[in-house]
Amino acid sequence: MNWFNNLKIARKLILSFAAVIILTVILGVFAIRELKAVNQASTDMASNWLPTIKAAQAIQASLPRMRISELQMITAANPAEREDALKAIKSRLEILAKQRAAYEKQISEAEEKLVYEKFSKNFASYLEINRKLADISGEGKEEDARAMFKGDSNKTFRSMLENMDEIVKINDAGSARSDQDASDVFDAARKWIIGLLVAIVVIAFALAAAVARAVSRPLNEAVSVAERVAQGDLTVEIRSYSKDETGMLMHSLRAMNDSLHKIVSEVRTGTDAITTASQEIATGNLDLSSRTEQQAGSLEETASAMEELTSTVKQNADNARQANQLAASASDIASQGGEVVHQVVQTMEGITESSSRIADIISVIDGIAFQTNILALNAAVEAARAGEQGRGFAVVASEVRSLAQRSASAAKEIKQLIDDSVEKVGAGSQLVERAGATMSEVVASVRRVTDVVAEISAASHEQSTGIEEINRAITQMDEVTQQNAALVEEAAAAAQSLQDQAGRLTQVVSVFKIQR
To answer: Which residues form the Methyl-accepting transducer domain (predicted)?
Structure first.
């Protein structure tokens, strides 16, 4: 039945109805053929046997009447009655002739023909006897006429009646056979028609059941599959048993189920990846937030240290200006001579003390520059980690590092100069003790100290300017850090929202059941 299941529904219906119609046509043709047979039997009875019987019975009826007319001829009391009897006999003979002619047209059986030939011979003998009887009766031989009427005439008459009875029996038998044939045909036709009707009904029900099963079974399976898919079960196995519309429907449902299975699998994979990525982003944001807070703390410490450095640099600049003034005074005193040697010694002691303070300050500046360099290096590393947003911060950190290196270089040079000044102040102190002999050298040394102090003042001014730039850079770094913190908070919120959306999407997709 696979070929039937693979037919289109329209062709199944057409084939089923065509089969029923063909069987109905066969039944109709058979019924018509059997009705024709019944009609032939009825026609044979109506057109052959019954008219023959009717014609034979008409002859049978006419023979006794003629016999009565003969008796009237024999027993006539006068010539007039005899003449009337002769006329009646003549009339009966004419009627018999017509009846015999009508009957002869209906003869169809050989047996009947043989019997009728016997009747014809007997009828010819009977006519001959009738003429003799008429002659004898006309001669007035009444007794002879009566004897002939009761003798040969009666014997021949009875032979004719027997012949006609036999003819009627033959036709009755033929009529009975036709009737039986019609009954047999009717009974057989009824049985066949009933059998064909039952067969048609059975075949029609079988075809209807086959069509219904071929249509309803896949449709029920399709409804079941659609309900399971609607409930989210994508593990259902969809099979197509035919190539008709229902098979195409099952094939489409299978393609739809496969597509949904693929989409849901991809969505689940995507949601898992989104969940993992959002978790990693959230973890990274927490780490970045912590680092940003640490960076902000470091910037605050750097700002505090820079404030101290600024104060120290200002004090250094003041000391440099004072040293410059003292150097000028020392130059004036040296030019005045030995009378101010004592003041020069005191001044040199003050210079020595100031130089020591300056050396200490320069050491502090050098340490601050070193720390600034380290902080700038860390800031550059953090800016590199921050990526695109930290690019500007990296530039500023690079400038800060450059300034710190320059400050360290200047501080080193100042320290060298201060050390040299201290040594020379010591030498000057020794020379002061020698007084005038070394006054010229003291003046020269004081002038050199004046130049060095001027350089220290210039370096202090330059360092102050660099520190101001560092302060501005740190301020910018603090602003960028605050912006980074805000962006980190926004990114954390976005990551949390993404994680929530992924969770909701996972919850929605979890309704579907798929094969792992």
So the answer is: 270-499
